[in-house]
UniProtKB/TrEMBL annotation:
GO terms for molecular function: ATP binding; ATP hydrolysis activity. SUPFAM superfamilies: P-loop containing nucleoside triphosphate hydrolases (SSF52540). PANTHER family: OSMOPROTECTANT IMPORT ATP-BINDING PROTEIN OSMV. Residues 2-236 form the ABC transporter domain. It holds the Pfam family ABC_tran. This is ATP-binding protein.
């Protein structure tokens, strides 16, 4: 569990992060989203102390990061930035081995870990381990950057616009790969983006920042159904891709067993219509009826969002 408590950063008279608090559960992804200059990167860098907070604190499993020596902190918290920051004169394997080496892992353990991570990312170790960064595509460099950050099983992975430099198709694939790997390794991630679609796709929870303040923190469904401010509503409104996806999918695609109260929705209707109905009537779930009018299960807001994410 990572606890961010009243973190504040001031440069002179300007407050760039203002009294921000939230908690990150182990094994989840929290996405920090907001407009340019909102203070997202500064917040992230205060978590690993690349930026020293003016006030407030960060606890990792109850331990104040100020009491952890800086080197240890860098090993316990992985960090991925947009340019991937790979060492150009080191091979893929050497790049991934960076932190395990510093930690004094033996050769076999390092070699096994490199192989495991390259396998996870579907980069054939025989082909890729000895390549240099300039021999890789942007998408491959990005994956190696994440593999390197994950190498020593950090307690937390910080990612600052990790997919910012990728074109849309590769970006979508990189997001899916990250989700799959995160679920598999149960990694805890805090990721910064200005892309609301990315936030909805990846976030178990979303932290919305505007002008140095955290204005909402909650699961994606909550941002949709209970936006804290007009700003969140506008921001959510820009994420039309999930809605387009939902208007292509049928209610029966997200059918769940069990009963629900209210007027049934048709199994053949779209998930977009079902979501609108759910939001309109303020329910978490509704019954689903087939063509003959018999109730065959239920559909829920969380089920629809889960479908939207996996689509
Ligand atoms: N070292 C610094 N000295 C003075 N001001 C700074 C410093 N670092 C950041 N700032 C200011 O703090 C504000 C927040 O910057 P930050 O990079 O955290 O925002 P951001 O939300 O990540 O923006 P972007 O999405 O554009 O990267 C900006 O106005 C920036 O100019």
């Amino acid at each position: 569990m990572i606890e961010i408590e009243r973190l504040t950063k001031r440069y002179g008279d300007t407050t760039v992060v203002d009294d921000v608090s939230f908690g990150v559960e182990e094994g989840t992804i929290t996405v920090v989203v907001g407009t340019s200059g909102a203070g997202k990167s500064t917040l992230l860098r205060m978590i690993n102390r690349l930026v020293e907070p003016t006030s407030g604190r960060v606890l990792i499993d109850g331990q104040d990061t100020r009491s952890i020596p800086e080197d240890d902190l860098r090993h316990r918290i992985g960090y991925v930035i947009q340019g991937y920051g790979l060492f150009p004169h080191r091979t893929v394997a050497q790049n991934i081995a960076t932190v395990p080496r510093l930690l004094g892992w033996d050769r076999k353990r390092i070699a096994d870990r490199i192989e495991e991570l390259l396998d996870l990312y579907q980069l054939d170790p025989a082909e890729f381990a000895t390549k240099f960064p300039h021999e890789l595509s942007g998408g491959q460099q990005q994956r190696v950057g994440v593999a390197r950050a994950l190498a020593a099983r950090p307690e937390l992975l910080l990612m600052d616009e990790p997919f910012g430099a990728l074109d849309p198709v590769i970006r979508a694939k990189a997001q899916d790969d990250l989700l799959a790997i995160q679920r598999r390794l149960r990694a805890t991630i805090v990721l910064v983006t200005h892309d609301m679609e990315e936030a909805f796709h990846l976030g178990d929870r979303i932290a919305v920042m505007d002008q140095a303040r955290l204005i909402q923190y909650g699961p994606p469904a909550e941002l949709l159904t209970r936006p804290a401010e007009a700003f969140v509503e506008r921001l959510v409104g820009t994420a039309d891709r999930p809605f387009r996806l939902l208007s292509l999918a049928k209610v029966e695609d997200a059918l769940e067993p069990g009963l629900a109260e209210g007027e049934p929705v048709a199994a053949s209707g779209t998930l977009y219509e079902a979501l609108s109905r759910l939001m309109w009537c303020g329910r978490q779930d509704l019954p689903v009826a087939d063509g003959t009018g018999s109730v065959i299960g239920r559909v829920s807001i969380t089920g629809i969002l889960a479908y939207g994410r996996s689509a």
